[in-house]
Amino acid sequence: MARQPGATTQRHPHSPFVISIARLGRRPGAMLSTREQVPSPSRIGLDLVAIERGAMLDLDLQVQSVSEGVLVTGTVAAPTVGECARCLTPLTGHVEVELTELFAYPNSATDATTEEDELGRVIDDAVDLEQPVIDAVGLELPLSPLCRPDCPGLCPECGVPLATAEPGHHHDQIDPRWAKLAGMLGPETEEPNR
After folding, report:
1. Which DSSP string corresponds to 52-103?
2. Residue 4 pLDDT > 60, yes or no?
3. Distance CA 109, CA 69 (A)
4. So what's the pLDDT on residue 8?
5. Minimal CA–CA distance to 152: which of 162, 142, 160?
6. Is CB count within 10 Å lower at the N or C end of the chain?
């Protein structure tokens, strides 16, 4: 593979995920590398856990020209924030995803034989990694993140986190079928001595 000495990728001024490949050319085997930090342009992830907008993403990518397009490989890593699915405790973490994405050149055989949503496209000498990053992060993050594997959740009566509640935390409950009767009896009175 012919790697251009000292070649690095160029970023689009409005999106950290758009990489200019103008310097790469269409020579199969030509490669550009990048290792940098860029801010996340939007929240990326799931309802309960995500990479926040503005969080710094670590990109370690190789952009290689192949006969039908451009192959982007490497890793994207970033801090995550969210909340426990059981007790709603705030969580912080880290996600790292592997990327392997092919972007077809315009008017190539690959471009002509694949559907628009099957494969990325090289547009105006640039590739946009935003959707592949969103998809990879979404698959990597847990649907129900937990603060710890045995999180007991919240008390269904008062909402206090059971992990920090006093031992034996409970609420005296009257069966709803008997609740009206209990209201009719009024306060309990002591029976007179016989």
Report:
1. PTTPEEEEEEEEEEETTEEEEEEEEEEEEEEE-TTT--EEEEEEEEEEEEEE
2. no
3. 10
4. 42
5. 162
6. C
Q: Could you give the CA distance from residue 73 to residue 7 in angstroms, rounded to a whole number?
A: 16
Round to whole Å and give the CA distance between 33 and 62. 4
Report whether 108 contacts 68 (CB < 8 A). yes
For the question of whether the overall pTM of this predicted structure is more than 0.70, the answer is: yes
**What gap in Å lies between CA 152 and CA 77, rounded to an integer?**
30
Q: Nearest-CA neighbor of 87 among 161, 172, 189, 36?
A: 161
Is there a contact between 138 and 42 (Cβ–Cβ < 8 Å)?
no
Q: Which tokens belong to 67?
A: 């006969």
Spatial separation of the C-alpha atoms in residues 99 and 3, rounded to whole Å: 20
